[in-house]
Amino acid sequence: MQFFGGSDISPSPPAPTASGNNAHMMYVFNRNGVCLLYREWNRPLHTLNAQQDHKLMFGLLFSLKSLTAKMDPTSMDKGNLGVPQLPGQGCSFHSFRTNTYKLSFMETPSGIKIILITHPKTGDLRESLKYIYNLYVEYVVKNPIYTPGAPIRCELFNTSLDQYVRSIS
Amino acid sequence: MAAIYSLYIINKSGGLIFYKDYGSSGRMDTNDSLRVASLWHSMHAISQQLSPTVGCLGIELLEADTFDLHCFQSLTGTKFFVVCEPGTQHMEGLLKVIYELYTDYVLKNPFYEMEMPIRCELFDINLSQATQKDRVALLGR
Hints:
heterodimer, A: Beta-Lactamase, 3 helices, 5 strands, 30% helix, B: alpha+beta, 38% helix, globular, endoplasmic reticulum (chain A), Trafficking protein particle complex subunit (chain A), Longin-like_dom_sf (chain A), golgi apparatus (chain A), ER-Golgi transport (chain A)
């Protein structure tokens, strides 16, 4: 796992599979459901105001996680539906696809959730999310004036994120 | 090991009208399957609200760590979803076949009441044939 790797940003970003900007938006939540970061690149449709939208997204992920934990066909003991689980506990999910978008999801051991919403035809983005997590560790966690749990306002992180997201397809 | 773990059919209001398990470990009881079905109904609806572009019809494929969930929604709002091994192919085709069986053996059954649990012998028989592993493979040809 790259989570606890060395101090430089992971070896190299996963090779982009094609060019063009396919990303719609990105969310970062902490384990309490606070939206630390919301970036938007291409989103023509807004159904709700920003705060409601973040709440709905966190609620969707939370419920989908309890759904997958309960549905897991390979484990014998699944616990009860809706009981909150620790990060890494129970069966989670890494992406879902609708006809208009694909949502890729990663949860770190500390409960940081990274959500990237892209074009539905995008391939597996698990490696890309790990790379984004590494950017977060480098530019946000190691930033001495950043207080954990506060919304991310870090110019360097935003620019490197924009640059990286533009390269993934 | 089975390629398909289970099949659910839910009506347009999220009620479970059909559930079949093909050998997942740690079986769910009736209450759990009902809850899971209505939870899926809500998640499907919420995913449409969060779409960045217009015209979203809800989740088609959910990729979890140990399974894939393929969902097909008919025009009338009935949802069919299968839970299968990760990476199983031709599930869209299978869902279409199951939908066809549903229209033939359930909707055309004069004793079937709409939106109620499905108890049709012919549907069960044809369904078990359709979900056999080799038949699923044939759909891809």
